[in-house]
TrEMBL record:
Keywords: Methyltransferase, Transferase. SUPFAM superfamilies: S-adenosyl-L-methionine-dependent methyltransferases. The keyword Ribosomal protein does not apply. Its EC number is 2.1.1.-. GO terms for molecular function: methyltransferase activity. GO terms for biological process: methylation. It comes from Actinoplanes subglobosus. This is SAM-dependent methyltransferase. The keyword Transferase applies.
Length: 262
């Protein structure tokens, strides 16, 4: 892809997500794909908002547990509250590294992802399928103290890695150099709550955005070798629910999530 090519003529997962959350950083192709998805799953924006709350809950939980270094892989378009805003309000000195490989995300991240505390916030242009490139980047190799725990967050990104073995391998390679006490937080697409969700998954794939839906057991397998925190892998609105999670229809939330420690 040429530098700066936003590929506005084809749908992009981050821009579809942005449109469904009511954002303005999207194009006609994204809006068409999103409207097709809403025909199958009209509650999709509810799911996306629940997933955003899940991100905020888990990083707040991990910051409260004393983690001060966060590696967020598959950042997507900035949508407040962003991960560093949640973390640095709890721990102003925390270090956050965002990772994505989309030029539109990069443009917005550079403009919007500025620290709210004294810790650093940096953006790495890299592909999650190349873990060693991420780990070797200065922001991680020099910016993190790998004698202290790191939280790896992969929120709503692994559904784009279709092969289960490849997904587990990516996680394993990213977690390998992180010390004991480090954490893995992830969420991933499911349609176990509502078979109609299969139509939305199909729409993604037909529009050139690879997506796979996983079962609860399939998402639990992504945490293999790590110690899951209660309540384990659950629909994201059931993970340590806040007031906004209460009353949310289970059939409208197409994401499982969980947190585990190394």
């Amino acid at each position: 892809m040429p530098p700066g090519d936003l590929q506005t003529d084809r749908p992009h997962s981050a821009r579809i997500y942005d449109y469904l959350l009511g954002g303005k950083d999207n194009f006609e192709a994204d809006r068409r794909a999103a409207e097709q998805m809403l025909q199958h799953t009209p509650g999709l924006p509810i799911s996306m908002r629940a997933n955003r709350r899940f991100m905020a809950k888990v990083v707040g939980f991990l910051a409260d547990r004393g983690i001060r270094q966060f590696l967020d892989v598959g950042t997507g378009l900035p949508t407040s509250p962003n991960l560093h805003e949640v973390v640095q309000r709890i721990a102003p000195e925390a270090t956050v590294v965002y990772v994505d490989n989309d030029p539109l995300v990069l443009t917005h991240a550079r403009a919007l992802l500025t620290p709210v505390g004294t810790g650093s916030v940096s953006y790495l242009d890299a592909d999650l399928r190349q873990p060693e490139t991420i780990l070797a980047a200065d922001a991680v190799a020099k910016g993190f103290d790998l004698s202290r725990p790191v939280a790896l967050t992969m929120i709503a990104v692994l559904q784009h890695v279709i092969d289960d073995e490849q997904a587990r391998e990516i996680i394993g390679r990213l977690m390998a150099p992180l010390p004991a006490g480090s954490a893995l937080a992830l969420s991933a697409v499911t349609v176990e709550n509502d078979p109609n969700g299969a139509g939305t998954v199909r729409t993604y794939n037909q529009n050139g955005v690879p997506v796979v839906a996983r079962t609860r057991a399939g998402v639990e397998a992504l945490f293999g070798g790590f110690e899951l925190v209660e309540p384990g892998v659950v629909p994201v609105h059931h993970w340590k629910p806040v007031d906004l999670d209460k009353g949310v229809d289970d059939a409208a939330v197409y994401m499982y999530g969980g947190v585990a420690f190394k």
